[in-house]
Amino acid sequence: MAVQLNHGDDDLAETHEINVTPFIDVILVLLIIFMVAAPLATVDVPVDLPVSNAAQQPRPDRPLYLTIKADLGLVLGEAPVTREGLAAALDAATGHNREERIFLRADQAVSYGEVMQVMNALRAAGYLKVALVGLEQAAATAPTASP
């Protein structure tokens, strides 16, 4: 006994087009999420940098910042470190690459002697390539001579 399924002459046309509207909606939502999340991913240690009028140098893709905060605490990247553990933290962050440049930032309230002590600690750890970081001085705030 055979069964025949006959629906009559109702031939439905097959559609071979992809509906891209939901795809575009998803992409736009992801774009908005990334636009909001990107600035949050660059959280930084708050530090009041002094102004510099030196020409800006190109920066590597992933610079390694060592920050001296106003309370004289050290922060390597985003993680606080002690002065005694600085060499080990640098070795871990650089993969024992002592040729990598360390970007040193210090709050304006930090004395020159403290900056030199940290630079001496960097030298003792074998990191001789140190770059000092400061804010760029705008042309409008440049000092002018008064008559």
How is this structure best described in words?
The termini are far apart. The chain has helices at 21-40, 86-94, 112-125, and strands at residues 51-52, 64-68, 74-76, 79-81, 102-106, 130-132, 135-136. It is α/β, with parallel strands linked by helices and 147 residues long. A five-stranded mixed beta sheet has the order 4-3-2-5-6, with helices on one face. The chain is built from three helices and seven strands. The protein has a domain at 64-133: 2-Layer Sandwich (Nucleotidyltransferase, domain 5), CATH 3.30.420.270. The protein is 29% helix and 16% strand.
Overall geometric form: elongated
Largest sheet: 5 strands, mixed
Q: Give the low-pLDDT segments.
A: 139-147
Beta percentage is: 15-25%
Helix content range of the residues, please? Answer: 25-40%
N-to-C order of helices and strands: HEEEEHEHEE
What does the radius of gyration come to?
29 Å
> What is the spatial order of strands in the main beta sheet?
4-3-2-5-6
Distance between the termini: 114 Å
* Number of helical elements: 3
Briefly, what CATH class of one domain? Alpha Beta
CATH architecture of one domain: 2-Layer Sandwich
Task: Supply the helix-strand structural class.
Answer: alpha/beta
Roughly what is the average pLDDT, rounded to an integer? 80
Q: How is the CATH topology of one domain named? A: Nucleotidyltransferase, domain 5
DSSP summary, beta strand count:
7
GO molecular function: transmembrane transporter activity
Function: Involved in the TonB-dependent energy-dependent transport of various receptor-bound substrates.
Protein name: Biopolymer transport protein ExbD
Pfam families: ExbD
